[in-house]
Amino acid sequence: MPTLCSHLNCKKRANYGNEIKKNIFCAEHKTDDMFISWSRICEVDGCKLFPIFNFDGEKNGRYCLKHKLDEMIDVFHKKCEIKGCKITSYFNFKNEKKGRFCFIHKLDGMIDIKSKRCIFKDCNIKPCFNFKGEKPNFCVNHKLDGMLNVKQRKSCIFSNCEKIPRFNYEKEKIPIFCLNHKLEGMINLWSNLCKNDGCLIKGNKKYKNYCTHCFQYLFPLDPLTFQIRCKTKEIAVRDFLNANYEGFNHDKILEYGGCDCLTRRRIDHRKLIDNTLLCIETDENQHKSYSKEYEEARYNDLIVNFTCKYIIIRFNPDSYINKKGFRINPYISTKLHQLKCKIDEQIERIKNNENSELLEIIYLYYDNYN
């Protein structure tokens, strides 16, 4: 049985102790001189932190974050299910307890199930705000009047000011004053942060100087929001290809032999094998918004720009209607495995010179796919 916290009526597990006795209090009731009573600690003398870092392929951690060596990775936390991805898995569907995918490879509808979330209904943003002395329960979008960023340890050095400091002199690295109390000549050291007040994530000029999280929340109908969500899937396919194959070019204009063609067509992912260009297109929602005439014109332009044989695998990462008439959406890991099988099959055909057609198109996870 785990040892419970010694504080009166506390039912939490006691993980903190001192040099004399282990497992006395929980994180909430520990005293300043206590540290986590791990069975294993960082190998650096005097460090009491739990070791989670080691070289890739090792099972047990040797160092903490502060003392880890170059090229060491987190070997303690479960990694994303996508082959070759070393990012910790925080995402799964709501009400699930274990993470399966990282942010890049998460499926539609998945949320961060490991991190604490804003208590506002259906909000999945991490909370930073509450009233002074309280734990963070609200995100920047749902904070109430008078709430502060209680996760931000430092506040403006002006007497009794609780606002976040962003200003200091140009060559300084640490902000010490807020907007109201900054001195003459001071500049905003956080000028490149997200425009949403209180957000500490770097802003992106492409998204009107908001971070992608805030932009999607504030402007759900903006075309850029749709682009954010779509690009994530294309990136997932790109990373999967890079982890399993060499030589794929990604989202680049098709130019060969100094051609200065006017069409400037792009292919999501392509690799030239012998005299065949193997192409993988990530077609979100089966590209139903694209007309048949547009697709045919695109193929014609590609063949004119670079004459060779083409095999194009059109991969739909979203849901589809199967032959029985049911809409289904298999796990992305299942889809990517099938994509790899199809790529391997086509590479073998190309090497054996079995593809005789100028253009072959293969549809994966389109409607009526078996």
Topology:
Blueprint: E1 16-17, E2 35-36, E3 53-54, E4 73-74, E5 91-92, E6 111-112, E7 129-130, E8 148-149, E9 167-168, E10 187-188, H1 212-218, H2 223-244, E11 249-253, E12 266-273, E13 276-282, H3 292-305, E14 309-315, E15 320-321, E16 327-328, H4 332-351, E17 359-364
Parallel strand pairs: 13-14, 14-17
Antiparallel strand pairs: 1-2, 3-4, 5-6, 7-8, 9-10, 11-12, 12-13, 15-16
Q: What's the quick description here?
A:
This protein is of the alpha+beta class and 370 residues long. The protein has helices at residues 212-218, 223-244, 292-305, 332-351, and strands at 16-17, 35-36, 53-54, 73-74, 91-92, 111-112, 129-130, 148-149, 167-168, 187-188, 249-253, 266-273, 276-282, 309-315, 320-321, 327-328, 359-364.
Would you mind describing this structure in some detail?
With 370 residues, the protein is of the alpha+beta class. Among the domains are: 1-37, no CATH class; 40-76, no CATH class; 79-115, no CATH class; 224-364. It is 17% helix and 15% strand. The protein has four helices and 17 strands. The chain has helices spanning 212-218, 223-244, 292-305, 332-351, and strands at 16-17, 35-36, 53-54, 73-74, 91-92, 111-112, 129-130, 148-149, 167-168, 187-188, 249-253, 266-273, 276-282, 309-315, 320-321, 327-328, 359-364. The strands form seven sheets. Strands 11-12-13-14-17 form a five-stranded mixed beta sheet. A two-stranded antiparallel ribbon has the order 1-2. β12 and β13 (276-282) form a beta hairpin. The longest helix is centred in the middle third of the chain and has 22 residues, at 223-244. Mean pLDDT is 82; it is low at 257-263. This is Endonuclease. Pfam families: EsV_1_7_cys. InterPro entries: EsV_1_7_cys.
